[in-house]
Design a protein that fits this description.
The chain is mainly alpha-helical. It is 81% helix and 0% strand. The chain has one domain: Four Helix Bundle (Hemerythrin (Met), subunit A), CATH 1.20.120.
């Protein structure tokens, strides 16, 4: 049987699991509920609504994204013995895809929408947010497999 992971390694993995699943749940809510509703706000109230959205979502998403990124990178250094290296790299890759899509697509769309509702910017936000939605969903699946492998290690010769 593989050597069991230390409590510190398991803590890093479980914090990664929690932050990843929090982001996956949040991004699906944004994709299926919140972002589509932007079109229903109305032009007179939209700039205030968008400013409020950014002010409220950033303190929630920012720390979660940082924790997820940090623990995903940390798993490369303090990897539990039962966690396959390719899965750890794949998880970090998903996080990087989500961060890049945020910087390249989401932030610019939110900046345009900050001046008022713009149908083209809204469409770009909703359509390109699928990249982040799929990246966080894939990472959630990967980290679930990692947790499973670490909590249920395969016995040698079994």
């Amino acid at each position: 049987m593989p050597e069991p992971a230390s409590p510190l390694l398991l803590l890093v993995l479980l914090v990664n699991f929690a932050s990843t699943w929090a982001m996956a749940g949040l991004i699906w809510t944004m994709q299926c509920v919140h972002y589509p509703l932007f079109a229903s706000v109305g032009p007179d109230a939209f700039a205030r609504y968008q400013a409020s959205h950014v002010a409220r979502i950033t303190p929630l998403v920012g720390p979660l994204m940082l924790v997820e990124l940090g623990t995903s990178a940390a798993l490369l250094v303090v990897r539990p013995p039962a966690a396959p290296v390719p899965l750890v790299w794949a998880g970090l890759g998903c996080v990087l895809v989500a961060w890049i899509a945020t910087a390249v697509f989401s932030v610019p769309a939110h900046h345009v929408l900050g001046a008022g509702f713009d149908a083209a910017a809204h469409e770009r936000l909703v359509s390109t947010n699928w990249i982040r939605t799929l990246a966080w969903t894939a990472h959630a699946a990967i980290v679930t497999i990692l947790v499973w492998k670490c909590l249920h290690p395969v016995r040698e010769g079994a």
